[in-house]
Amino acid sequence: MLQNYLPILIFLGVAAGLSLLLMTLGFLLGPHKPDAEKLSVYECGFEPFEDSRIKFDVRYYLVAILFIVFDLQIAFLFPWAVALNKIGILGIAAMGVFLLILVVGFIYEWKKGALEWD
């Protein structure tokens, strides 16, 4: 049975050897002339003007979480809608509770001002 895997192991060995050889050749034969421009931090064409560890507003994270939650909601709604005839009244009630929880959460976020961008 191991003979079936021998061509795969040979292929992986050749691929690993060739990649190491090419990386080593590139490192040895490539130019080594670092200057200030190459070593400087690139930030969208501008010189860096602040520390990269500044605090982000929590609203960025709230909007990202809301996007993920409502994206997952669509992922649950599509199969539910396809199987609507087979799941009966219990499936409709379960999806109603699911959507109610999401709507209550969305209204809470809206009232807290998480969607306001001043």
Structure description:
It is a single chain. This protein has 4 helices and no strands. With 118 residues, it is mainly α. The longest helix has 29 residues, at 84-112. The protein is flat and about 70 Å long.
In DSSP terms, counting alpha (H) and pi (I) runs of 4 or more, how many helices? Answer: 4
Radius of gyration: 28 Å
Q: Give the helix/strand class.
A: mainly alpha
The biggest beta sheet reads: none
Shape descriptor reads flat
Give the total of beta strands: 0
Overall residue-averaged pLDDT value: 84
Helix-strand string: HHHH
Oligomer: single chain
Roughly how many Å apart are the termini? 66 Å
Poorly predicted ranges: none
Which key phrases capture this entry?
single chain; 118 residues; mainly alpha; 4 helices; 0% strand; flat
Briefly say what this structure is.
This protein is mainly α and 118 residues long.
Topology (SSEs and partners):
Blueprint: H1 6-29, H2 36-39, H3 58-82, H4 84-112
